[in-house]
Amino acid sequence: MNVDPFSLPLSGPLVTARETISQRSGFVVRYDHRGETGVGEATPLPGWTESLDDCQRGLDDATTVAADGGHTDVLLSLDAASVPAARHGFATALLDADAKADSVPLYQWFDSDRHCNRVPVNATVGDGPPDETAAAVERAVAAGYDCCKLKVGKRTVDEDIERVRTVRERVDEDVTVRADANGAWSHEEAADAIDRLAPLDVSYVEQPLPADDLTGHAELRGNGVGIALDESLVGRRVDSVLDADAADVLILKPMVLGGPGNAHTLALRAREQGVEPVVTTTIDAVVARLAALHVAAAIPDVAACGLATGDRLAADLAPDPTTVTDGSMSVPQSAGLGIDPTEVETDA
To answer: What's the cofactor (predicted)?
Structure first.
């Protein structure tokens, strides 16, 4: 097991719950298994996963375990609840090697009966004024996207409703519109917003309330706009969210959940309970984006996912083998993730 650090500049600042960051730093993990070298990525994100230092300590400990034990011992040493990004890095490398050894793309390693060439993806639009927001959506639709997610919550509810209304006046009704409040609303504001968003045919609102308010989210359901939970999955078992009937949609980030395997398992569990999974990245480099893409590709009839995030990076670890055309992302059909570990350079 080899671990190499990297740092990649962003094309523009990324605002998180804790800070504004200008680069994504993490670790490339390589692991030899079944005669193949698998590659993984551990890229922690403040507010979502462990810190960079904790990620490194987790991977250092795992490297020591790997020197004396097998991959099962390594996985057991990496707790998804405390070091999810570190576990994601190793788990992805292990799965990449397994899929290569079996001569199948990773999504078919999850489901051997699946064949998927493309996964639908959404465009994300910031929180600009109404005309600016609508213009950005129009550009996305012209580029082929039929699903757009609007950032809301930083402005008043009245202002956000006007933004969504302006978008709806500019684009056809067959364009799916989602909203992401990042937990910014009170229960009263969220109820008001949902009541006014329903006639505007908004598919769902992502994280309308703070992460801990599962009861509040459950009460918001059934009012004409779906409820999607994202931040509520951080540091909490997904079973507790499902048991609370708090969501119509789960936003699954493999980096936050401890690896692609965990994300795929949770997606199937959600489906069994009538909750739709949507797979997204945490603004990762190409290795982790591919892992998330394969998770989405293994889910039948998956809704548009938040995977088209490569343009948020000014540089990457390797050439991206995927393309985004007409609102969907191509899925590599070569074995494993679809990337050659020798092309992954941490000094990019």
So the answer is: a divalent metal cation
The verdict on 130 and 211 lying in the same domain is yes
The H or E element spanning position 180 is strand 176-180
The residue range of the domain holding 175 is 118-343
Q: Evaluate whether 144 touches 113 at the Cβ level (below 8 Å).
A: no
Residues 124 and 90 in one domain: no
Q: What is the pLDDT of residues 131-161, one digit of tens each?
A: 999 999 999 999 999 999 999 999 999 999 9
Query: Is pLDDT above 60 for 251?
Result: yes
Asked if 160 and 152 touch (Cβ cutoff 8 Å), the reply is yes
Please check whether residues 271 and 179 belong to one and the same domain: yes
Structural domains in the chain (count) = 2
Residue-wise pLDDT tens digits, 155-188: 999 999 999 999 999 999 899 999 999 999 999 9
Q: CA geometry: angle at 123 spanning 146 and 40, to 5°?
A: 125
What backbone torsions phi and psi does residue 286 show, to the nearest 5 degrees?
Answer: -65, -35
- In percent, the amount of the chain with pLDDT more than 90 equals 92
Q: 296 is written with which tokens? A: 């989405």
Pairing of strands 324-325, 328-330: antiparallel
Structure tokens at 332: 């590599």
CA 53 to chain centre: 22
Residues noted as catalytic: 151, 253
Instruction: Choose among 15, 285, 281, 251: nearest CA to 126.
Output: 15
Residues contributing to the annotated binding site: 180, 206, 230
Both tokens of 104, joined, read 């199948």
Q: What are phi and psi of 272, to 5 degrees?
A: -60, -25
